[in-house]
Amino acid sequence: MGKNGTKRPKKFLHGWGSFPSELLDSILERLTSIFDYIQFSFVCKHWRRVALNQKEQRLKSCHKQLIPLLLLIPTKNSNQRRVLYSVTQGKVVRSFNVPNHHDDDKWLCGSSHGWLAYADGNFLVTLVNPFTRGTIRLPQVMEVGKYRPKCYSFDISKVVLSANPCLFPKDYEVLVIFEDDDGVIKELAHFKSGDNAWTRSDNQMIDGLDILDVIYYKGRFVALTSLDTDSDPGHDVNKFHPSIKFLSHPEEACNKSTYLVKSTWEDLLLVNINNSSSIKIFKQGSSYGEWVEIESIGTDTLFLDNMQSMCVSASYSGCHPNSIYFMECVVNLNTRKETRHDELPERTRPITWIAPTAAFSI
Fold it and tell me: Which stretches of the chain drop beneath a pLDDT of 70?
């Protein structure tokens, strides 16, 4: 609107709409905030069309600025709604129900790319997105009928996705890890969208393999193991599947509190933790399988837990830089000072981090 409430001349509006698409693309690439990106699309129809053309790429890259949320579950009444809690804002941002979920026959075994993975005693895996309310039921990992045979004394312990099925409905992969009651790896299974069945590992190849963590990195799953995969002839596990690469952990990382995470600079990091004052971080070296210890992660911020570890840039996310967020506290890597999160809602406990699904509409 112009002065005295009059409309701006059409010539002025035509000026905004005549900006070359190449110039607008360049502007969009420099917008670090997802909210600035949305405001950009409100200027005029031409700018909106350019923004829509970049929307898919923006959705794929905006994970660097979307702060992970804590999934809180009820401590007593399992029928209560689940809660998503922001530790940076100190408040609940969303609550939801898990479709067809009962604690006595299903359990949470994965949080990956904004989806929660639930498994049951019949080796069925269901993916649930609490942001879009989407549900994906994957094929049965093992066809054991209504009642599982007694010879199967293990359950699905972890599920990892290669990508967000919302963005890649025809091009995502799933890796399932089986453990027995003692935490010993018994089997792996791999699934690619569009397949009718899972590819399962040879039990003799995988049985007893000590897998510390799994991540999808540069086109394949990377599994970190405490075994020397190059020198142990009894565990030639890298022949299992071309989409899975097994790496040995560095000798300095000597306990099971070890996590794999991809930095915002696309480096593969390994974080080994004894306590807040004894945290070691390694980066994958130039030689695949070589780990180089580093002192700082710069402006990056890590969010770690056993189901999924993530990294965002503190430059525009509002997180503390060069810090690690755990479910109970945040540790500054410069000072090694530990600060507990604000008090969580009553009668809830944190269970995992989950990446917000960017499902905005412009």
Answer: 1-17, 29-39, 42, 52, 54-65, 77-80, 98-104, 143-154, 182-186, 202-208, 228-241, 254-256, 276-277, 316-317, 358-362
Task: Report the C-alpha gap between 277 and 261 in whole angstroms.
Answer: 20
The partner residues of 152 in beta bridges, in order of sequence, read none
Cβ atoms of residues 130 and 354 within 8 Å: yes
In a 13 Å sphere around the CA of 348, the CA atoms on its Cβ side amount to 22
Of 128, 100, 131, 102, nearest in space to 115 by CA: 128
Point out which residues pair with 291 in neighbouring strands: 284
Report how far residue 117's alpha carbon sits from residue 115's, in angstroms, rounded to the nearest whole number: 7
3-state secondary structure labels for all residues of 295-306: CCCCCEEEECCC
Distance spanning both ends of the chain, measured CA to CA: 23
Taking a C-beta distance cutoff of 8 angstroms, is the pair 62, 34 a contact?
Answer: yes
The residue type at 43: V
User: What are the phi and psi torsion angles at 121 (to 5°)?
Assistant: -70, -10
Task: Please tell me the total number of residues recorded for the chain in this structure.
Answer: 362
Query: What pLDDT was estimated at residue 96?
Result: 81
Distance between CA atoms of residues 72 and 98, nearest Å: 12
pLDDT recorded at residue 239 = 63
Question: Rounded to whole angstroms, what are the CA distances from 231 to 150, 212, 334?
Answer: 35, 18, 37
Q: Which backbone phi and psi does 46 adopt, to 5 degrees?
A: -65, -45
| Strands of 310-313's sheet in order across | 310-313, 300-303, 323-325, 329-332, 338-340
Enter the pTM of the model: 0.79
DSSP-derived secondary structure for 147-216: S--TT--EEEEEEEESS-TTT-TTS-EEEEEEEETTS-EEEEEEEETT-SS-EEPPHHHHTT--EEEEEE
Asked whether 313 and 299 are in contact (CB, 8 A), the reply is: yes
Which residues pair with residue 294 across a beta bridge? Answer: 281
How far CA 73 is from CA of 96, 114, 219, 345, 352, in Å, comes to 10, 17, 33, 10, 10
Residue 173 amino acid letter? E
Q: Read off the DSSP letter of residue 143.
A: -
